[in-house]
Amino acid sequence: MNKGIRQSDFMKVITATEASRSFATVLDEAERGETIVVTRGGKQIAVIGPAPTAPGRMVKAFFAGSVGTLDADFEADVASARAATDNEMRDTWPGV
């Protein structure tokens, strides 16, 4: 293991220098679900981890629960945008 990298009990800790040298690897690890803490001068400066996901069904549920509670013009704009999308575009959002 490089001296710029150490493993804590829950996440990897890496120096900013090492993160810079191996950024593609850091991103690969984050993509696999790891969380990496980046330090500079012994202080935590950043956390790199997997991007949050928002399944389509969650987005759909949010909007379904919001019907009637939004500004009327905004609600009409959302309905118009939904009507304008084709099925191919909807198929890219799982659960919608």
Question: How would you portray this structure in words?
Answer:
It is a single chain. It is built from five helices and four strands; from the N terminus they run E-E-H-H-E-E-H-H-H. The chain is an alpha+beta fold and 96 residues long.
Question: How is this structure best summarized?
Answer:
With 96 residues, the protein is an alpha+beta fold.
Features of this protein?
96 residues, alpha+beta, 4-stranded mixed sheet, 5 helices, 4 strands, 19% strand
Task: Present the secondary structure layout.
Layout: E1 5-7, E2 12-15, H1 16-21, H2 23-31, E3 36-40, E4 43-48, H3 56-66, H4 72-84, H5 87-90
Parallel strand pairs: 2-3
Antiparallel strand pairs: 1-2, 3-4
SS strand fraction: 15-25%
Mean pLDDT: 80
**Through-space gap between termini:** 44 Å
Which value, in Å, is the CA radius of gyration?
21 Å
Estimated helix fraction: 40-55%
Estimated structural class = alpha+beta
Number of helices: 5
- Order of the strands making up the biggest sheet: 1-2-3-4
Poorly predicted tracts of residues: none
Number of strands: 4
Order of helices and strands: EEHHEEHHH
Biggest sheet descriptor: 4 strands, mixed
CA-based shape = elongated
